[in-house]
Amino acid sequence: MQLIKPGLTKLTDALDIAFAEVPVIAPTEDRPISDCYGAVLRQDVVAKVSVPSVDNSAMDGYALRHADLAGIDGPVSVVGVSLAGHPYDGTLPKGAAIRIATGAAIPDGADCVIIQENVTANADESVIEIAADVIARTSLHQNIRWQGEDIKAGDTVLSAGAILRPQDIAIAAGQGCGTLSVARALKVAVFSTGDELAIPGDPLPPGGIYDSNRFAMIGMLRSIGCDVTDLGLLADDFDVLQGALADAAKSHDVIMTSGGVSVGKADLLKPVVESLGEITAWKLAIKPGKPLMRGKIGDCLVVGLPGNPVSVLVSGLLYVMPLLRHAMGADRSRLAPTRIPVRSGFDFKRMTGRREWLRARLVQNDDGEFEAIAFASTSSGMLSSMVWAEGLIEVPEDCGQVSKGDQVLYLPLHGLQ
């Protein structure tokens, strides 16, 4: 028995095909490191310096020679200070100590650090006393961080294809990188179609609805660093759409739209794209979001999302955003959404054949364990459900029933953006 209906493609297969067919289209540019948050790295970052650059102290305290500790039976002279950036100049004398700060270089001759809380110092800190029990439990190399312990010069600290997070920027900065080679922002033209749509701020005509999908698309695109051109609302008119797409394709890497991709009389996007270029994929075995189109006009990628707002968000997050990050050179292993196994706190029945995502959030049950609860409706027209939701529950193509207590996969929405 065939599970997937003819003419529909599984999401995983659709992404495999798209990643194979859509090349990396964003060129590489060198960008100041402070402007690289969220960008796709296009060249490995190789460590120029070891971290730490020298053996240094992990704590504020006193640096000593471990072999001297057994012979201590009275006060110990403090003969100098080692501060971060201002190391002690010289060799630690036998039986003496050096006052040392966290991050400061270990003086020549010292091989352990006793924290300041475990010694008694006189008023001017020229002399310290160390109790016998502290001496007994002080080990060789205690509280010392070794040169290269974190990073060794020559290590690859960031690999091309990484989507740069604050910690990635920090490690590059720690290597003295003033710029990074990253993908240039994709230029994406966005519009909505539908004669029933009105622009927010304008009077709402009888039977009309305000356009919300365009703003969802713009938000998703900007969250991954795209340079967005807002073309606004376009009429359900073949010539209008054909002219707008032909012009946009000349100056953009991607055209992204919502509405007009189904099979109704007013669904004109598919024939318009076919008149200018070609359709390379259409209709996915997903819910919500089945009528999703991918095509191209010349070298410009065209993505047509459904008209229902939940479908726009779900198919955008799970299909379009990974595809566009791929087009910017992101490593595919970084594009899979986070899936967390949790217990279901609801019952659900449905027809099999499509992978479905239920809007969900996690709550604590009476036993103090987290379980997923689903929004009361599965309607793809209820945008409020995506505001309520904090994640999605993934229901595989062959699953027709979820019972309370079953293990399900939870996709946090913050991990999809």
Please tell me about this protein's structure.
The protein has 417 residues and is of the alpha/beta class. It has helices at residues 11-21, 66-69, 132-137, 166-173, 213-223, 238-251, 269-276, 309-327, 384-388, and strands at residues 28-32, 45-46, 56-57, 61-64, 76-82, 97-100, 112-115, 119-121, 127-130, 144-145, 156-158, 179-183, 187-193, 197-198, 209-210, 227-234, 254-258, 278-282, 286-287, 293-297, 300-305, 340-344, 348-349, 355-364, 370-374, 391-395, 401-402, 407-412. The protein folds into four domains: 11-26 and 185-334, 3-Layer(aba) Sandwich (Molybdenum Cofactor Biosythetic Enzyme, Chain A); 27-51 and 150-184, Molybdopterin biosynthesis moea protein, domain 2, CATH 3.90.105.10; 56-145, Molybdopterin biosynthesis moea protein, domain 3 (Molybdopterin biosynthesis moeA protein, domain 3); 340-416, MoeA, C-terminal, domain IV (Beta-clip), CATH 2.40.340.10. The protein has a six-stranded mixed β-sheet with strand order 7-4-6-5-9-8. The chain has a six-stranded mixed β-sheet with strand order 16-13-17-21-20-18, with helices on both faces. It has a five-stranded mixed barrel with strand order 22-25-24-26-28. The model has no long low-confidence stretch (mean pLDDT 94).
